[in-house]
Amino acid sequence: MKNVFIAVSLFAAGLVFGADQMTKYDAKPGSKVTLDGTSSVHDWTVESTIIGGSMELGFDPWGSLTPGKVPAKVTATIPVRSLKSKGKLDPKRMEEVMQETMKMQTAPRIEYRLSELVLKEAPKTATDPLQFDSKGQLSMAGVTNQISMPVTIERMEGNKLNTKGNVTLKMTAFGMKPPAPKILLGMISTGDDVKVSFEWSTQKADATTASAAK
Amino acid sequence: MKRSRKSAPDVNRRDFLKGSSLATLMTMLGGVELRAQGTPEEPKKPEGPKVKVGVIGLGAWGRDILATLGRLPQAEVVAICDTYAASVKRSKNNAPNAATTEDYRTILDNKDITAVIIATPTHKHKDVVIAALQAGKHIYCEAPLAHTIEDARAIAMAAKANPKLYFQAGLQLRADPQRHFLMDFVRSGAIGPWVMVRSQWHKKQMWRQDSPNPDRLKDLNWRLDKDISPGLAGEIGVHQFDSAGWFLGAQPVAVTGFGSVRRWTEDGRKVPDTIQSVFEYPGGVQLMYDCTLANSFETAYEMFYGSDAAVLLRGNKAWLFKEVDSPLLGWEVYARKDRFGEETGIALVANATKIAAQGDNPIEDAPFTNTPLYYSLENFLANSSSIGGAVEDFIAAFDPKDIGQLKAHLAQVRMQPYAGFVEGYAATVIALKANEAITKGEKVAIKKEWLTLA
After folding, report:
1. Which run of H or E residues covers position B184?
2. Which of A25, A31, A33, A81 best probes binding to B when mutated, by most B CB atoms within 10 angstroms?
3. Which of B103, B334, B144 is nearest to B241 (CA)?
4. How far is B393 from chain A (nearest CA, A)?
5. Which residues of A touch B393 (CB under 8 A)?
6. Does the ipTM surpass 0.85?
7. pLDDT tens per residue, range B41-76
8. Which DSSP string corresponds to B81-108?
């Protein structure tokens, strides 16, 4: 009976913290997402500085933290057209191929929605990055898959959080056929694996808002 | 002996008369054709949705613009406008699906239209540009921007105050890929230290148009009204003055001008049909320019002289004329020998090996076959789309009021070559100062601070 009481109390506390005490962090300029792939000629990279969306955290990143699952909501979006080729070999054509492969006309944004965030260990110092394991739904090219990846959150001045992570995906898992474009020198074939790396800058919203109030 | 296809062709008089091409002429003169690497062009695929465009001003140049837009798959001409109904009617063939209007505000009120091309008479640009910016349109404004420095400044300042909107001045040579290729070549030092620049525009034409309607006649011939006309320097020279300064990487510090009516005296015009001007650049380099409506000989060209070689730009081609004592350039290993009557010359073609490998004739082929206007409008559509998309993405993700960050974001957008309001303003001031010098027949200073918007 006592255990049930504790469980109910914790659940209630979780609800209170998970709903009414969520603190919102809005996306800010200064982010970067990079997609790195391979091809028969050389590796390719596209990059964007636009990662929109927001995080809502049910814990204080600057406060005392204990490992385990933490309440958090995250939605992040990246416009496909903002991804620009960093290569020198006909970057415009590369972008056209990428946009076509990612079905930009019907799926103009890459979208991510967090489903679970687990703090791996308590930070040893006030400046250590927070280490998490994450699970979430990633939608790309009109296909949604669950992905898992470790992420770190750096606690910056001015109530800013810098979230970093990377994950390797397969194009075919998202219904994309690795393209074989004809660019200047001839036919190029690309590999299935794409490494996605990101640094996402967010800042505490002007007012601490409760999700439940919305 | 049968000549191999890969060896140099003979260029005899019959070939010359048959072809009668400038390329042949220049090769016979010992010119080296300079050409960019490139494959035959084909229209680029539209990047996402087409750009919905309105065209304001349907005179002869406006109709050229409309016809060019018709060849660009990225363009969707939604509406066209001119205050003269007959001009609108004449333009319909080139934009059969476009709505027509005699009031440009109708185009500005159309929320579907994201970009406007302004080709009205020069003195009418300011009101249309400022209203278009207020209506949130990307703008292509013909050059010169205005007939007065005050108006040009007002236009440029309004464009500067609207970073979310893309502004392109109609200095179409700035978008010409042939010139970008040549820019790298000239700036590499291959022609030696600058000696001088000479350019001209010769075309026998009246500049007067007829109309049975007296009011229309006055409107139509605004270029001949000395109170509002920027003259040949403003209407024609602006492009070549800008090109010279762009290649030299400098702005003129003074201009001396002369002008007179040499051929079209019958109509009592006061605006010269023939002008000469000399621009002085820092360091003693000078641009000598002449422009006439009285004679067509040698049409239009620009010639850049260095102490080791000269470069001629004409149409979509260019040639190098080397001095005998000039140093050997690395790419001369690709030299092809041509016979010219009794003489043998060394033809140095930038992409000789590639062209020979493809079995093409390097004399007749050119990688950039479209007009500068085509490239300019193509880049306008691409850049409007890029800026529009980047603004939309930024606003969707971040605080739209953060103009500083927005500007920083837009500065990262990869743009196709173009002249913006800064270049458009400076070119307009230089051209108007040239017109002032021509009108006064004296030397006029061009102060550096007059060319900036600070």
Report:
1. helix B177-187
2. A81
3. B144
4. 7
5. 50, 52, 79, 81-82
6. no
7. 545 555 557 999 999 999 999 999 999 999 999 999
8. E-SSHHHHHHHGGG-TTSEEES-HHHHH
